[in-house]
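for the writeup, i need someone to sanity check this before i put it in the appendix. the sequnce is what the collaborator sent (i think, or maybe the updated version? ugh). structure was predicted straight from it, no edits. if anything looks off just tell me and ill rerun, i have time this weekend
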Amino acid sequence: MTHSVPPRPPALLDRGSWAEARRIAGILRKETVGGALLLVGAAAAMIWANSPWKDSYEALRAVRVGPEALHLDLSLATWAADGLLAIFFFVAGLELKREFVAGDLRDVRRAAVPVAAALGGVIIPALLYLLITRDVEGAARGWAIPTATDIAFALAVLAVVGRFLPVALRTFLLTLAVVDDLLAIVIIALFYTDQLSPLPLAGALAPLAVFTILVQRRVRSWWLLLPLAVAVWALVHASGVHATVAGVLLGFAVPVLRSHEASGPQAGPGLAEHFEHRFRPLSAGVAVPVFAFLSAGVPLGGPNGLVDAFRDPVVVGVVMGLVAGKPIGILAATWLTARFTHADLDEDLSWVDVAGLSVLAGVGFTVSLLIGELAFGEGRDEHIKVAVLAGSVAAALLAAVILRLRNRVYRHIHEVETADRDHDGVPDVYDSDRLSRADG
């Protein structure tokens, strides 16, 4: 008499496939280095802005470069926010498309968890911020500041306290941050476009269409693609929509899958993967750290210093949104997804692990600073910087404490996930997973 093997219950967070784990490990290594550079840039800005030479820091930020005839004579600070972060969002667009077209997240059941978590991590901090600032005139414009996650900063924290974090948790954090970036760019496009000029926006469609046609044909020639990308960026910038939107649109245009007819020089990784390898180091190692250096400098003393900043309900709202709202939203959304789908956590993990990552997601440095500039301009500029810095650092420290409590468990999981007794280049646990899925 034969007995059917009951199907294995779905895991809310699992390590995924070996190919995906290896790809994510490569991304995280680059982003971790970028996170370290980001912290160096931010620290240098803070030291300079609080030194006797602080006026020279502001003078540097205000230096204007670019062609005036094209209305692109922008300050260095603006070039960093509008230009360099477009590279950051281009890479985010590539990664998001890659995840949902060819990554493990093409499975709707697996995609549901980070998508729901990202939505919860946007809605709850926004509501908490609006509740705290409800009596402050004009404060509602900053509702989106505490909704972002800075993956580079978060990974820099993990490099110190979470070196043995399991693959499933790293994957969850990365995919959550990628979806979070998409939500951020949608928020920027919809809610922080004050004056829309339809003609330049419509004009951006022409170079974007040509760029799309060329990349769909697997053209890699930089001398063709780069001028088109710059044209899209410049026209989106002129339209009044924040120029970083152009980066995401260009990233979405790039094909993920390899051409079935490709042979010879065109064979190999898909074009999105090729561009990601080229541009991720530029994004993580240059664009984000330079933006941090030109944006994070804020004086902590004097009449507009730290003590005065925390008398502003907007500052309290941003800090509470990052430190409390973000983890509550992510944790609640993940738990509700588990209840709705009847899924359990992977047997090696617990809800403490999800809580630790949810707190770490409250590190909202880069995009939070960007949204703060868009929301308030120079009106509350220094207060917003204090709020984002304080909230991000507090979230990082709290997450470090939570994750360190589980470090012994993570070490054990790391040993299991890296053991390769048959020396075939693939950890044994992935062979076991594949056989287990086949039996199920």
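Confidence is low (pLDDT under 50) at residues 1-9, 261-267. The CA atoms of residues 30 and 281 lie 7 Å apart.
thx in advance!!
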